[in-house]
């Protein structure tokens, strides 16, 4: 008997091309959100090259210059989790606008600062505004644009602009400082806020979490107070030593508050941080990698800025060009990161990237006071930054891969907090060793050597920690293991990874995971 097999093959209807065009209103919304996020990214770097000039103008010693960076990073890291949750509960648009207004006002205060205290107050308020802008801005972007081509395109545009923030800030900071003085760098941020703030209320829709869980106030108080106390203690101790009463008191308070936070979160109905998630091997070791790469690279940028201007006598503009080369090469590395991660996987890429970052930073110990050192500094910091970017992308993927869809928001918060805390603690811990040294060049050598050792040691620890596979993973069939590695190995910037994430989200009916597509791009700057 003949068997008809013509109907057994599936019929594939041609699919129309996906429409990724954005309406005029969508473009305006995207402009507002991207401009606000770009403004915050700019603030992290625009002042770096102006620090020596700023210190001389306001009468700040070299040892006090670290506070120009720490005063911003401290509140932006300490309040990030709290503000992210407040935005979810009480309105992201409302908190976003409040953060914009605060950031603009603080930038104006910093522009016209008359002494170190007024300047640092402006920087601290900028950090507070940034802590409100960053999480709510990301949430507004993903809730405004529907899942699919429109969101993919919006995330791509936003990620690209954010990746340019650091480079533009360095170059613009040098140009503005040489032409108009350091105050113009803060004035640029004020101008950004004045452009964005009037447009935002009429364009951005309000959004909040539908079920409105109760705000974890005890957790918010303990983690925010603990981070603020601990970072203040480390910053002050690095400058004056650990013998001061205020240092001991704030250090003890920070440790006790963070210990209390762990206890509070273990019993909270809607915790700020999921403790079971922290026990995941990939989450714990991945975040350690993120903490190390951010803290140590921010230290390198800080001490090299002082070295290039104070030891080699470069102008702010010339210093900006050095870091501009770094930014361009980092962007090239970001564009090709998918090939490396696709070949090695996210975990191995994280380890290799950290090892490369530490090795290239170690070569900076050879810096001297001759003109040739400019070329060594440019080459080494650029190569270290390329590895740093690989570590950023791979640690974000390591942390979030395998996390259930309904916990991706918590994973995103951890990734973001790791970045902010890393930037905050690096300079107080190591950078001040250079600023308090009687010989700046010797102090720079000490900092860079310690920096390299810490990064290389972290690479070894993370390789061991991530290399241990649980029994269930060892027992998994070969085919499934290969598929799992492919999922971990393919970065967020590839279309197939975005598509698989989107389809998984649609099947589960939960909110989309934005970290795999957007968050890792956000950290490129």
Automatic annotation (TrEMBL):
<feature type="transmembrane region" description="Helical">
    <location>
        <begin position="28"/>
        <end position="51"/>
    </location>
</feature>
<dbReference type="GO" id="GO:0046677">
    <property type="term" value="P:response to antibiotic"/>
</dbReference>
<dbReference type="GO" id="GO:0022857">
    <property type="term" value="F:transmembrane transporter activity"/>
</dbReference>
<feature type="transmembrane region" description="Helical">
    <location>
        <begin position="320"/>
        <end position="337"/>
    </location>
</feature>
<dbReference type="InterPro" id="IPR020846">
    <property type="entry name" value="MFS_dom"/>
</dbReference>
<feature type="compositionally biased region" description="Low complexity">
    <location>
        <begin position="488"/>
        <end position="512"/>
    </location>
</feature>
<feature type="transmembrane region" description="Helical">
    <location>
        <begin position="374"/>
        <end position="397"/>
    </location>
</feature>
<dbReference type="GO" id="GO:0005886">
    <property type="term" value="C:plasma membrane"/>
</dbReference>
<dbReference type="InterPro" id="IPR011701">
    <property type="entry name" value="MFS"/>
</dbReference>
<feature type="transmembrane region" description="Helical">
    <location>
        <begin position="63"/>
        <end position="83"/>
    </location>
</feature>
<feature type="transmembrane region" description="Helical">
    <location>
        <begin position="349"/>
        <end position="368"/>
    </location>
</feature>
<keyword id="KW-0472">Membrane</keyword>
<protein>
    <submittedName>
        <fullName>MFS transporter</fullName>
    </submittedName>
</protein>
<feature type="transmembrane region" description="Helical">
    <location>
        <begin position="247"/>
        <end position="264"/>
    </location>
</feature>
<keyword id="KW-0812">Transmembrane</keyword>
<feature type="transmembrane region" description="Helical">
    <location>
        <begin position="285"/>
        <end position="308"/>
    </location>
</feature>
<keyword id="KW-0813">Transport</keyword>
<feature type="transmembrane region" description="Helical">
    <location>
        <begin position="154"/>
        <end position="176"/>
    </location>
</feature>
<keyword id="KW-1133">Transmembrane helix</keyword>
<feature type="domain" description="Major facilitator superfamily (MFS) profile">
    <location>
        <begin position="29"/>
        <end position="469"/>
    </location>
</feature>
<keyword id="KW-1003">Cell membrane</keyword>
<feature type="transmembrane region" description="Helical">
    <location>
        <begin position="120"/>
        <end position="142"/>
    </location>
</feature>
<feature type="transmembrane region" description="Helical">
    <location>
        <begin position="95"/>
        <end position="114"/>
    </location>
</feature>
<feature type="region of interest" description="Disordered">
    <location>
        <begin position="472"/>
        <end position="512"/>
    </location>
</feature>
<keyword id="KW-0046">Antibiotic resistance</keyword>
<feature type="transmembrane region" description="Helical">
    <location>
        <begin position="440"/>
        <end position="466"/>
    </location>
</feature>
<dbReference type="InterPro" id="IPR036259">
    <property type="entry name" value="MFS_trans_sf"/>
</dbReference>
<feature type="transmembrane region" description="Helical">
    <location>
        <begin position="409"/>
        <end position="434"/>
    </location>
</feature>
<feature type="transmembrane region" description="Helical">
    <location>
        <begin position="182"/>
        <end position="203"/>
    </location>
</feature>
<dbReference type="Pfam" id="PF07690">
    <property type="entry name" value="MFS_1"/>
</dbReference>
<feature type="compositionally biased region" description="Basic residues">
    <location>
        <begin position="477"/>
        <end position="487"/>
    </location>
</feature>
<feature type="transmembrane region" description="Helical">
    <location>
        <begin position="215"/>
        <end position="235"/>
    </location>
</feature>
């Amino acid at each position: 008997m003949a068997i008809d097999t013509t109907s057994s093959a599936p019929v594939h209807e041609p699919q129309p091309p996906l429409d990724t065009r954005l309406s005029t209103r969508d473009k305006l919304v995207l402009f507002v959100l991207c401009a606000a996020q770009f403004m915050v990214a700019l603030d992290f770097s625009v002042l770096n090259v102006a620090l020596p000039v700023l210190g001389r103008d306001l009468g700040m010693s070299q040892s006090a210059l670290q506070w120009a960076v720490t005063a911003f990073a401290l509140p932006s890291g300490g309040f990030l989790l709290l503000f992210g949750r407040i935005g979810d509960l009480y309105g992201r648009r409302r908190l976003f606008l409040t953060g914009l207004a605060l950031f603009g006002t603080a930038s104006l205060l910093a522009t016209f600062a008359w002494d170190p205290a007024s300047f640092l107050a402006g920087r601290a308020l900028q950090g507070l505004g940034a802590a409100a802008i960053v999480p709510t801005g990301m949430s507004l972007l993903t809730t405004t644009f529907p899942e699919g081509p429109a969101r993919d395109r919006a995330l791509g545009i936003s990620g690209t602009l954010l990746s340019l923030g650091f480079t533009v800030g360095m170059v613009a900071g040098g140009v503005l400082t040489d032409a108009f003085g350091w105050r113009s760098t803060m004035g640029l941020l004020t101008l950004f806020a004045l452009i964005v703030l009037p447009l935002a209320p009429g364009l951005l829709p309000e959004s909040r979490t539908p079920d409105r869980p109760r705000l974890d106030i005890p957790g918010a108080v303990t983690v925010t107070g603990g981070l603020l106390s601990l970072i203040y203690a480390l910053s002050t101790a690095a400058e004056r030593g650990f013998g001061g009463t205020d240092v001991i008191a704030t250090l003890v308070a920070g440790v006790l508050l963070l210990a209390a936070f762990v206890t509070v979160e273990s019993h909270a109905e809607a915790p700020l941080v999921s403790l079971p998630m922290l026990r995941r091997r990939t989450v714990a070791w991945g975040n350690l990698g993120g903490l190390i790469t951010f803290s140590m690279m921010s230290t390198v940028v800080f001490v090299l800025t002082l070295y290039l201007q104070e030891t080699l006598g470069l102008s702010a503009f010339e210093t900006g060009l050095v870091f501009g080369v770094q930014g361009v090469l980092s962007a090239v590395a970001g564009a090709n990161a998918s090939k490396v991660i696709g070949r090695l996987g996210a975990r191995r890429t994280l380890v290799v990237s950290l090892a490369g970052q530490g090795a290239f930073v170690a070569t900076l110990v050879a810096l001297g006071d001759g003109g040739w050192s400019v070329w060594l500094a440019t080459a080494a910091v650029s190569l270290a930054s390329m590895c740093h970017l690989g570590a950023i992308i791979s640690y974000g993927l390591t942390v979030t891969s395998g996390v259930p869809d309904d916990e991706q928001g918590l994973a995103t918060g951890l990734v973001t907090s790791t970045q902010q805390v890393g930037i905050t603690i690096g300079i107080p811990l190591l950078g001040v060793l250079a600023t308090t040294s009687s010989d700046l060049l010797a102090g720079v050598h000490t900092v860079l050597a310690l920096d390299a050792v810490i990064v290389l040691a972290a690479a070894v620890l993370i390789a061991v920690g991530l290399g241990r596979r649980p029994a269930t993973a060892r027992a998994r069939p070969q085919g499934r293991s290969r598929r799992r590695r492919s999922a971990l190995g393919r970065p967020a910037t590839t279309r197939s990874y975005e598509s698989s994430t989107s389809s998984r989200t649609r099947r589960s009916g939960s909110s989309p995971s934005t970290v795999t597509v957007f968050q890792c791009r956000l950290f490129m700057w």
